[in-house]
Amino acid sequence: MAKTPALPPADKIFAGKIFVLQGDFGRYPRTHLNIARLIARHGGRVDSTVTERTTLLVTTIEEFRKGTPAIEKAISLGKARCRIVQWEYVEDSIFTKNGKPRVISANFHEIQSVLKRQNRLSEARAMYKKKYIHDANATKGLADPGLHHHYIDTTGFKYHIVLSRLTKVDSKTRIEKYTLFLFESNAAPYTYMVGARYNRPGAATTYIKDYMVPSAFDVAFRQFRRFFMLKTGVEWNCRLDGVRGGEEAFVYVPPGREGARGVVPMGWVEKGGGEGEEGEGEGEGSE
Predict the structure, then answer these.
(1) Phi and psi at residue 39, in whole multiples of 5°?
(2) What would the CATH number be for the domain defined by 10-116?
(3) From 48, 142, 149, 253, which residue has the greatest number of CB atoms within 10 Å?
(4) Is 82 helix (H, G, I), strand (E, B) or coil?
(5) In this structure, are strands 172-185 and 148-150 parallel, antiparallel, or unpaired?
(6) What is the pLDDT of residue 195?
(7) What are the residue boundaries of the structural domains of the chain, listed by start?
(8) How wide is the angle at C-alpha 183 spanned by C-alphas 182 and 189, nearest 5°?
């Protein structure tokens, strides 16, 4: 059985490693001279240029992006021979919580890995910002997106629906619509509110805030269903049955079968198909 090589003593954690320092690491004591002394004190060696023998190039993201000859040389050596790391690799190896220097992997502090994490974080922030702006625009005039968001039920259905009907304006047929929302507070204990926005061609947007009062879910959901019934003439639990509430009623067009459509009553069966997949219980959809 092969023997596991013994770890170097705490004061020799960089034994056998050849470093090169590249770039500006900031204010004192992060000078090249002090860093070189730290590395030497713990068994490593610091050269002035990258060679075939270099094992670690310590640099900054800014310097890495410049693509200097030293960076290009280190990259050409390959990760198996030379790792390009931030100063924090040296720092975290020496200044540990228990005060004892230790050998650590270069993976976390490797510049390429750091850049990948930063890119993923930037993408996540951009997506969050886009969603935040979208939600802020959608709830404008009703709820503060910093305090509330659209309620999403257990099926993944977002309670932000549109009720529309055709109307005549100046002898032209136009679309008149209500956008109905059920909001949930961002903070616990969670409260719920119902609001609506009314749009008609040639008229300013009207915000309906009669139910914009923090309430328990049952209260707010009852108000949501009542508003839906008043405008469509159809019970919320019958929204997927294809029924109409009359010539003057507003119409709700639900998502297709491939999308979330909200909780439905237990035993509900979709016309032209088998029992609804979402019909697991009365849940939010019960009267």
Answers:
(1) -65, -45
(2) 3.40.50.10190
(3) 142
(4) coil
(5) antiparallel
(6) 94
(7) 10-116, 140-285
(8) 130
